[in-house]
Write a structure and sequence with these properties.
Elements: H1 2-16, H2 23-34, H3 39-44, H4 55-88, H5 107-120, E1 125-126, E2 132-134, H6 135-138, E3 165-167, H7 172-180, E4 186-195, E5 207-217, H8 222-237, E6 243-250, E7 253-262, E8 279-288, H9 290-295, E9 304-311, H10 313-320, H11 333-336
Parallel strand pairs: 1-4
Antiparallel strand pairs: 2-3, 4-5, 5-9, 6-7, 7-8, 8-9
Amino acid sequence: MEQLLNKIEVYKNEINAFSVSDTTTVEEFRIKWLGTKGIVKEIMGEMKNVAPDKKKEAGQLLNEFKQFVEGKYDELKGSADNGQQSTANTIDLSLPGDPLPLGSRHPVVLMRNRIVSIFQRLGFAVAEGPEIEDDWHNFGALNLPEHHPARDMQDTFYVQQNPDWVLRTHTSSVQIREMEKGKLPIRMLMPGRVYRNETVSARSHCFFHQVEGLYIDENVSFADLKQTLYFFVKEMYGKDVKVRFRPSYFPFTEPSAEMDVTCFICGGSGCNICKKTGWVEILGCGMVHPNVLSNCGIDPNKYTGFAFGMGIERPAMLKYGVNDLRLFSENDVRFLKQFTSAI
């Protein structure tokens, strides 16, 4: 019995000297003293060695020791939990904030916004339409009846379930929808994505983006068209840019022209973007054909108008010095993250 008392006293001194640093230390204490193979269970097993007349006294002593160990465990556990909670709730307000990475706008979006903002200063509003169009709005109303040879100018993606529906080849279909509303005069921009079955290369893609413009009113002339486009080019590329108009053909305008500017990639010396000519075509334009006005219920004897259309990718290539159109659609973050601010 005396030996048991001495052992318990040594154990109590060891427990009183135990200090806690974290929850891991508390768990180690529990395993050592209260675990299935712990010291408390071990010392309880010594009851079998106690004399029968001393068992009652020894049982009380062992129970008190067990309660002492359990109380110490609860105390240590509470201290560890309070310390961990206190650490978790401590915020150092003097530390700098976590930096938030900034995203960037796509260069095509930047260029679209820039083009729209220039024409909005001339009073143009923005209109949009569906990317899947019926044959009438995409071709027929634009003076391109079925089997017209000019349809070969645009390799078209047709909807397999219904060949009368196509992926629009130009945003001119939105012009038709605006003219059909009959709200004159019209001064609108039509930006959007278009689709053509073309070979993907540094200069072309099977999908790209366009901005088209339409102005219809009484006494609109080709001079109005030229001055509008001169203003746009000077605002976009600077006052020193060189410009030329070339006669062209579009079935929905008459007369028609194409507008070129000096290639900014090579400075006019010739490269793969300008096909070694030193010039880059940026848009097509012309006076709205009388047949198109009639198809939309507008009197061509009273009203005239002009229209123009340009791809967005090509001006973006010139503005940013990009020599491969495919970069715009490859989603390469190394390329896209360069465009962090509006132009």
